[in-house]
Each structure stands twice: as C-alpha cells, then as structure tokens.
C-alpha cells in the first residue's frame, strides 16, 4: 500500500502575538499532543515536528544557532533517515541500502504498513536512533563542504537536536545540546494527587560542571578548551553546547583550516574535535503513573523550571497547553525586565531576541489505553505536523498538518 492523498491545514497565530504559532490539540497513538512556537530571532532558528502512526509517535525539536540552516536541514532529513532505517530492517531479503531507500521514499511517501511492521517487530532501538543522527550529521557536513566556497559562514551553523519516540509502551529520548525532555508523573502525597517532574534528557551545556569536566577530560593538553567569557562558560570561548548537528568548524580540521573559512572567521586552534554529534539516549518503559511529556528548546527552560512547567500542564486544560507554557515563559522574561508580556509581544523579531530566545514546546499526553475510542488516530492513517519554518512569513508550505491515508 502506498500513500496517495494528502490534506493540509494550518495551525494558528497566537492571539495578539504576531510571532507566535500554535496548534491546540491533535491525536496520537496513546493520547493527545499540543505544539506552540514563538519567534524572537530575525529568522526562526527553532524547528519542530510530530509524526504519528497507529502504534508509534515521534517528536523532534531542533534548536539552531548561528542561523536557521542546520535546524531546517535536520527537520527535513532526520525523520526520513530514521524511518528508512526501520524500513531497511523490515526488508532483510532485499539488497538495498539507505541511500537507495532515501532516493525512493520521503517522509510523505513512506509505506505506512512497512513502518508499522518494523516498529511492531522491535525495529526501533538505540542503535537505529544513533545511526539516524550520524547519517544526518554526515549529510549536513557534505552540504557544508559543497556550500563553503560561496557561503563560508555555513561552517559555523549548528543545531541542538531532541528526539522522542514512543513505541510498544517504550519511550526513547535522544538528545544533542540543551533542549530538554521532562516527564510529568503522578504522585500521591497526604492522600492528594500531585505531579512530580522527572528530567529525561541530558543538557550538553558546559555551564553544567559535569559537562565541563567531560569536555576538559577529552582535551587534557588544551587549557583553553573551555573558557569563561561574557558571563558564561563556552567551548573555545565561542559556544555553550558540547554536542550538536553541524558546527563543523569545531569538529573537522579541513573546515577550520580552510582559507575560505578563515577569511570569514578567525582561525580556531584545535588539536582534535571540540564537539561531537553522539547523542545521549534514554530508554524507559512507560508506567501507569506517567501522565505527560514536555519536549522544549532551551528558550522555555531559561524561564521556567522543570517543576513549574509540569505544574502548569497538570493544573490546566489540555487544549492550548503548549501555548500556555510559552506564554508563561514570556511572562517570566517580561518580569525580569520589569515589563509586561503585552509590551514584549509588540517588539519586532530580531530586536525581540534581546528579551528572550525562540521557544518551541511540544506536550505529549500519555493516556495508556491505545485501543479505546480515545485513540483517534485512524488505524490505517499516518500523520505529520511541522511547525512553520518562519512564523513572520507563515505560508501553507511552511506549516503543514498532513494526514496521509494509505489506499489499497
């Protein structure tokens, strides 16, 4: 069965804030999900997507830095790499490689039954996820190599990468950088139902002492591998995150030594790669008291603690919950400047980056009864929603909500 028909509908602008986009509530295999994005940079550097099928849900949050190119690249390529590897696992008798698969299948042309089969057979694994991350990294490096003569700055563009997958009641969380996944878990205290926050991802940020020591241990002969400058710790005085897709000038000597790149930026003295694209991966069985998951770029976590975020989700209605979290973060950002949110939302993109970062939030509810009528994803349907590439110039091609219906 191949996927034939495709329907699009847009999310909505965020009531009075022209730089916010959101979709209130959509179904996935075991509950509902909600997305919201607010733009602060001149070009939106955050990208995000949710892919749903009858038995699996995939979430991606990609926080770019240095420009939007890397996060947009990851948004277009990581899920197709992941799904093509699952497809390869389900076709063991065919002599076909990942490159050939990708030349035939895109995310919008996947055979839904094949992905389902691979997922149900336990095809998803930490190894498969790592290979998809590495394939995305290598593909972006190839793009940088080709573009370098005309666009040397692309060698300094990168993206954090946070991916969640739920399959067969098992949760996978893979992360590069400092976007974060947090679980809201029900607890009972004094006979009252409350919620506890459980962080599921590792912040790869050298502001964290353990991460800083990890980087320093890998570079014992470089006293300046991590430098405190402009109020924070940075690798080579440049970047705070230690893992990413891209940032090839801090990973591969052929780029930071290239005369074309050196005309764009100062030479970086490196004896070995200063950053990696090796994701941290957590695998965890979903338990009865697990209520919801929050996947968000660091723009949210700079303003809200894990505990504050899960309290907001726990105490409020589902519809529009991601937007509610974004607004709570913006209110905190405004408070730090002795302003109101109404003042901040009047500020134009670019200038607004002085007040807060781009923020992306995806909330996934876990309802633990996939086979019930609550599971509104049709048994034979695959869905994909991508947040807009740039909110200020929102168009039908930049924000698409696709329900793909396989036809026999």
- Report the total helices: 11
Class of secondary structure makeup:
alpha+beta
Measured by DSSP, the beta-strand proportion falls in 25-35%
Share in helix = 25-40%
SSE order, one letter for each helix or strand? EEEEEEHHHHEEEEEHEEEHHEEHHHHEEE
User: Sheet with the most strands?
Assistant: 10 strands, antiparallel
The tally of strands reads: 19
Mean pLDDT: 83
Poorly predicted regions: 1-10, 92-118, 370-380, 394-408
- Alpha-carbon Rg, integer: 21 Å
Distance between the termini: 5 Å
Shape: globular
Keywords: Hydrolase, Magnesium, Manganese, Metal-binding, Protein phosphatase
Enzyme class: hydrolase
EC number: 3.1.3.16
Domain PPM-type phosphatase: 32-366
Key attributes of the depicted protein:
single chain; 408 residues; alpha+beta; 11 helices; 28% helix; globular; disordered N terminus; disordered C terminus
